[in-house]
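My main concern about presentation is that the manuscript never shows what a single data entry looks like. An entry of this sort, consisting of the sequence and the corresponding backbone structure tokens, reads as follows:
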Amino acid sequence: MTPPPELIAAKEAVEAVVFALPEVTGIDVGVRDEEQPDADDLVVRVFVQDLGAVPELPGDAQGFPIVVLQRSFRPAGLPDTAMYRPVVGGVSVMNERWLHAGRAGGSSGTLGAVVRHRIEPGWYGLGNHHVLCGDLNRAQGQEILQPETFFGARHDGDHLGVLSNWAFPETTKSGRVDAALCAIDVDAAQEIAELGATAGPNYLLVPGDIVHKRGRTTGLTHGWVSGTNGSHKVPYPDLPPVAPPPLVPGFPPDRPADILRYMTGQIQVHVDFPQSITFLESGDSGSVLLDPDNRIAGLLYASGDWDNDPAAPTYALANPIADVEDQLNISV
């Protein structure tokens, strides 16, 4: 069911007050009961770090129920490290400069899809900013490798291309995408490993929709959309601290800068257990979110869990693909 405009407006009406609370990690519109999901039973959902320390919240959102869930998110950063030629989506990738920074193998992720730029010719590889760029030392033209390289020992023929451009709130607090693009210099195919050809974009995901992804670490996994229109706090330790936005009246005037970025307009995915044990783990960042027809609906970048246990990520966040296309000027 597409969320009613009145429900989205109600969520947006309380978001500034709720999101300013330090205990809150996110807010979205989604299914009330994830154990027995009903896509027609949608509510405003507020996520907190600890259900034992829930802050004072509004009783409702313009008449719509508010449901509180314990959940936090972090970038998803073992694996399929094979070389793919022609290169396809869903495979291992890394920026070559990490070999010289003592982080070989520690900053790898997934090349989500092979795409076209709307102006420039040739194939481009779509991934996450926190994988292909990492920090403020990123620069256009930096070499991108496929597959990733461990302990400084490169593979023959591992040159994939060069870093092209990116979109991410590097020095501001909020944004809509964690995305980057590399220009591909080798043979490529607009396919996903194990899954075959992609079939364009899907701009219309709603709660309850079935989805899947193929990533470097966990391979092919399955899930369903539990929420949309979400705003979530995600930590990025390799980027500079940024002060939170101006507070709404009634809150303490001074809050220190921190490494959280406020990602808005996001899709939340719940693992489809027992078909999959987990949906997105470290190294799967950059995978694309696919519908049953292999249409690309989002760019995955963070995983989460109900009890803050990083060993058991059950949920994932994705940027809507329309935002990624617009900000990188690409077509999937």
Observations:
- Residues 5-19 form the longest helix (15 residues).
- The mean pLDDT is 91.
- The domain at 87-192 is CATH 2.40.10 (Thrombin, subunit H).
- The two ends are 25 Å apart (CA to CA).
